[in-house]
Amino acid sequence: MSTSVIKNKTVYTRVIVDISERAKNNLAKQGLTVSEYIYLSLVKAANNEVRLVRFLDSPEAMKTKKEVETDQVNVIDSLDSFDTWVDKIDAN
Description:
Layout: H1 17-29, H2 34-46, H3 59-69, H4 75-91
């Protein structure tokens, strides 16, 4: 008689509290826990059924990428712009 043992893997990630709470609340509206969402996401990724969100394809990101590649950017100004860009993403 053959017996097979299914091994589980625990996955950990770090995230700031605000993001965790907002995700938890939004997922609850869909009837999911964070763990269930992560599990379903990993199943889709394992089956190559996932379409990754491409955060760096926005016009602003492409413009900044070009500026960096052609040495037309001031690092300090870029950090301020990046923070503004992240704030805009968080607002959506």
